[in-house]
Amino acid sequence: xxxxxxxxxxxxxxxxxxxxxxxxxxxxxxxxxxxxxxxxxxxxxxxxxxxxxxxxxxxxxxxxxxxxxxxxxxxxxxxxxxxxxxxxxxxxxxxxxxxxxxxxxxxxxxxxxxxxxxxxxxxxxxxxxxxxxxxxxxxxxxxxxxxxxxxxxxxxxxxxxxxxxxxxxxxxxxxxxxxxxxxxxxxxxxxxxxxxxxxxxxxxxxxxxxxxxxxxxxxxxxxxxxxxxxxxxxxxxxxxxxxxxxxxxxxxxxxxxxxxxx
Length: 262
Hints:
Helix content: 25-40%
Strand order of the largest sheet: 3-4-5-6-7-8-9
Order of helices and strands: HEEHEEHEEEEEEHEHEHEEH
Number of domains: 2
CATH class of the largest domain: Alpha Beta
Low-confidence stretches: none
Shape: globular
Distance between the termini: 44 Å
CATH superfamily of the largest domain: Fructose-1,6-Bisphosphatase, subunit A, domain 1
Radius of gyration: 17 Å
Mean pLDDT: 92
Structural class: alpha+beta
Oligomer: single chain
Number of strands: 14
Largest sheet: 7 strands, mixed
Strand content: 25-35%
CATH architecture of the largest domain: 2-Layer Sandwich
């Protein structure tokens, strides 16, 4: 437990340091490049945040593996501990000056998430979760919503970077929830969407074609806040992000039915 607590303290410190970089550079002149597609952006702030986080981990925990979105870490397959980092989740928002972005840091032990930290520097909201230890926002416990009726639920989703070439599936899902629920939001940060599920702002969330750094911290946050996270078939425990359905648990089966087109 001491190892977990020490890593949690480190993750919180590094998330705040990266968040400070984001705040300082927000709405300034950025170097913006593209990666896999024209809508998959990376900025010099992404890289600066990742460098700061990776440098801090290597100094304090040199034996731990690091999986970081921009490739600055060393995955170190076979190590017991692995850090899974999105240094700036919501890069497109950041590049356009839209204030919805965060730092996401998850830590796995033997492939299972043990702790997660998500920091929104604009609202100064720091979320953290420990396996078996609960979920918190700014050190106060949080819980998922208690809504059972889809017609009263607020949902969130996102769209994959290949959406111009492969637009079909999630547009159908979007329409399904738009017809069944109170509303659907698309804010452009998977980590913050999961944090919003954990604290009851959203009731349900789904997204396709994510990556581990998008979901590792947020998945644990939702589960520790009393929610449920699965893939489209209802199977829990996946952290690769290929397909994520998260909810307060009470509406989860109904969400899966909507995703099946029922």
